[in-house]
């Protein structure tokens, strides 16, 4: 009786109240997986590769009829996959045809704060914002999404998100034929109200929306025809709040080859991989001819015993994507034993402490777009020690940098990360080095990537300054704010 009472109280405290769904075995996999098209680009005489990205509204068939109102980039749902090479100069012409103010943020990108697409780079309706920067970081699976303060959850939920792949000519040989053996897998959970995508604020509880249907690249119940011996899946958790624990229906091993900011040093064989919102993972799975397997999510280990008990028995499990291997499979690149060299971030000279204090506050403060919370000197290596005292599920994302998670032997945290799950009562120490870009008046963000929490104030701002320089007394003010 004691145990039951404790569990009941704990569940209330976590406010993860609408997660009781179980679609395992009920998905029919009737639809071919849609692939986001590769974004068209042009290279001008100045050598800059330009992309035109139009944020717009439209209708989509997400399995509830053809007229579901959705948002997208260059289309009605999600956006094209942007691809650029390390070393290239890129320009994004972001036009806003949504009728409401938004932004477009390059999640995981190392770039000047004014190009970041955060809450200070507003794109007003009917205008175009054209940030430009040089891509200078390892090959990686990044992504883009709105970052409009207070509206991010809604804008992403309606459909604005896409992948941003960085290629590096000096990287190892890997399956890399887009749509053939290199597949974007954008995983999102959705709720519907009749034919409508239920984007109403009513479904955003304190955790944020937890949908009861899963889709990949906007395809409900998708299958993928596999024609090669192995296939590389670029997993992106583009859900607002849900944490997944990816694996395969037959418990087969896969190789984890990359995380948020690029390739691991070496591939790691595993059966299950936890991925929190905003995080990415690249995995390679080998198939035998004429077989099928299903990418699924089983209850994630969220770090507290009663929590996991609650998910026992299949609740919060999802079948996600069926892989159908052809009767003859073409040979393709085998994953090499060495994938990359992880950077030496140096010895930290600064430690900052952060506490995820509630679903609306960080260090007991709610986000203020006019307040600069942290001032970092360029060239320093720091440890950010992040504790979760809130009794709720959170993760932590830092703009501009890829960090190294210290004090862990979890192979899924061994590589470059920009977003990491932080369990209730857990402390993570994150090693990061700030380089290249300074701007005393334009902040980068750090926040929980459960988008409702971010919108509600679980976010802060830091500026990177030159040695001896001081931050502007406040962040930029916007007209109307
Ligand atoms: Cu994916 Cu601050 O964002
Ligand atoms: Cu959170």
UniProtKB/TrEMBL annotation:
The entry's keywords: Metal-binding, Oxidoreductase, Signal
Keyword presence, Cell cycle: no
Gene3D superfamilies linked: Cupredoxins - blue copper proteins (2.60.40.420)
UniProt-listed Pfam families: Cu-oxidase, Cu-oxidase_2, Cu-oxidase_3
Domain Plastocyanin-like: 58-170, 202-287, 351-465
InterPro entries in UniProt: Cu-oxidase-like_N, Cu-oxidase_2nd, Cu-oxidase_C, Cu-oxidase_fam, Cu_oxidase_Cu_BS, Cupredoxin
Assigned protein family: Belongs to the multicopper oxidase family.
Protein name: Multicopper oxidase domain-containing protein
């Amino acid at each position: 009786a004691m145990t039951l009472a404790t569990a009941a109280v704990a569940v209330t405290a976590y406010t993860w109240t609408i997660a009781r769904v179980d679609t395992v075995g009920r998905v029919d996999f009737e639809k071919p997986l849609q692939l986001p098209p590769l974004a068209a680009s042009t290279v001008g005489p100045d050598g800059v590769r330009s992309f035109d990205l139009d944020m717009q509204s439209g209708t989509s068939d997400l399995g509830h009829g053809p007229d579901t109102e959705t948002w997208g980039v260059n289309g009605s749902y999600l956006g094209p996959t942007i691809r650029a090479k390390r070393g290239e100069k890129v320009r994004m012409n972001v036009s806003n045809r949504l009728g409401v103010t938004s932004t477009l943020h390059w999640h995981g990108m190392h770039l000047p704060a004014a190009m970041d697409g955060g809450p200070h780079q507003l794109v007003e309706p009917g205008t175009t914002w054209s940030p430009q920067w040089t891509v200078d970081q390892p090959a990686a699976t990044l992504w883009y999404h709105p970052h409009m303060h207070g509206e991010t959850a809604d804008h992403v939920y309606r459909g604005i998100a896409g992948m941003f792949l960085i290629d590096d000519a000096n990287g190892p040989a890997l399956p890399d034929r887009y749509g053939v053996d290199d597949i974007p897998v954008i995983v999102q959970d959705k709720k519907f109200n009749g034919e409508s995508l239920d984007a109403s604020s009513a479904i955003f509880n304190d955790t944020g929306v937890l949908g009861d249907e899963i889709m990949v690249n906007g395809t409900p119940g998708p299958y993928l025809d596999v024609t090669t011996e192995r296939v590389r899946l670029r997993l992106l958790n583009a859900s607002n709040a849900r944490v997944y624990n990816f694996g395969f229906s037959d418990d087969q091993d896969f190789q984890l080859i990359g995380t948020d900011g690029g390739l691991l040093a070496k591939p790691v064989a595993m059966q299950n991989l936890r991925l929190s919102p905003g995080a990415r993972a690249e995995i390679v799975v080998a198939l035998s001819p004429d077989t099928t397997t299903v990418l699924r999510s089983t209850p994630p280990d969220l770090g507290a015993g009663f929590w996991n008990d609650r998910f026992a028995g299949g609740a919060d499990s999802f079948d996600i994507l069926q892989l159908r291997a052809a009767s003859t499979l073409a040979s393709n690149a085998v994953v090499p034993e060495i994938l990359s060299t992880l950077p030496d971030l140096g010895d930290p000279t600064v430690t900052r402490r952060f506490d995820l204090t509630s679903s609306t506050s960080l260090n007991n403060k709610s986000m203020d777009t006019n307040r600069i919370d942290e001032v970092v000197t360029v060239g320093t290596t720091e440890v950010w020690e992040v504790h979760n005292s809130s009794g709720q599920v959170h993760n932590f994302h830092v703009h501009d940098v890829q960090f190294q998670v210290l004090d862990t032997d979890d192979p899924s945290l061994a590589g470059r990360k920009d977003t990491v799950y932080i369990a209730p009562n857990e402390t993570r120490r994150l090693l990061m080095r700030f380089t290249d870009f300074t701007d005393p008046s334009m902040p980068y963000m750090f926040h929980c990537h459960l988008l409702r929490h971010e919108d509600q104030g679980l976010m802060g701002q830091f500026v990177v300054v030159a040695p001896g320089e001081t931050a502007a007394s406040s962040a930029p003010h916007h007209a109307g704010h």
